[in-house]
Design brief:
Number of helices of chain B: 0
Largest interface: A-B, 32 and 26 residues
Helix content of chain A: under 10%
Order of helices and strands of chain B: EEEEEEEEEEE
Number of helices of chain A: 0
Distance between the termini of chain A: 30 Å
Shape of chain A: globular
Order of helices and strands of chain A: EEEEEEEEEEE
Number of strands of chain A: 11
Radius of gyration of chain B: 13 Å
Oligomer: heterodimer
Largest sheet of chain A: 7 strands, mixed
Strand content of chain B: over 45%
Number of strands of chain B: 11
Radius of gyration of chain A: 13 Å
Structural class of chain B: mainly beta
């Protein structure tokens, strides 16, 4: 157990639907990062939150959004889902500045049918 | 723009021999380089890192070498063990103000007993 909790582990949904992925960071970590891993692809950075505020944005589609709540858990919202959104979505956390040893959760596997 | 590249999608090595995983990068501003290991159904876990001011870092059976002039780093595993079979991701980060890790596409290492 890495200390980073992601739910659900698996999700199957239809095209056009909306889903919410949840992440609870490791205790004491203020930063949350979302990454997407599609088939045979590396981990693509989507977005980072630090202590409730958006810190950095990567290749995140406009159909996707995220937020970090006061208790530091984060949610990634994916809407108008397409087949190509099927992927593993990882959340990672870190203490914050000058800490690069991210701790990853075990991921949510999203399948869009 | 793939700033971190792992050109070998897979590698098979005999148990007890040396495994060498390679990674190339294009951004000379990266300050730290890291290797992550990922087992199926789990999130990536931090393995070893190296600062851009060093050319070698060793931790047990794992050694990372950095060649800044060639923008190349490698991970050596000696001796290789069956439990080392996993996907290895190379990652890099630019500076303390930008905490986003940029990942390569991964290399699947298979240790043959």
């Amino acid at each position: 157990d890495s200390g980073v909790t992601q739910t659900p582990k698996h999700l199957i949904t239809a095209t056009g639907q909306r889903v919410t992925l949840r992440c609870s960071p490791r205790s004491g970590d203020l930063s949350v990062y979302w990454y997407q891993q599609s088939l045979d692809q590396g981990l693509q950075f989507l977005i980072q939150y630090y202590n409730g505020e958006e810190r950095a944005k990567g290749n995140i589609l406009e159909r996707f959004s995220a937020q970090q709540f006061p208790d530091l858990h984060s949610e990634l919202n994916l809407s108008s889902l397409e087949l190509g959104d099927s992927a593993l979505y990882f959340c990672a956390s870190s203490v914050g500045a000058a800490n690069y040893g991210y701790t990853f959760g075990s991921g949510t596997r999203l399948t869009v049918v | 723009d793939q700033q971190v590249k792992q050109n070998s999608p897979s590698l098979s090595v005999q148990e007890g021999r040396i495994s060498i995983l390679n990674c190339d990068y294009t951004n000379s501003m990266f300050d730290y380089f890291l290797w992550y290991k990922k087992y199926p159904a789990e999130g990536p876990t931090f393995l070893i890192s190296i600062s851009s001011i060093k050319d070698k870092n060793e931790d047990g059976r794992f050694t990372v070498f950095l060649n800044k002039s060639a923008k190349h780093l490698s991970l050596h595993i000696v001796p290789s063990q069956p439990g080392d079979s996993a996907v290895y991701f190379c990652a890099a980060i630019r500076d303390f103000g930008n905490e986003k890790l940029t990942f390569g596409t991964g290399t699947r290492l298979t240790i043959i007993p």
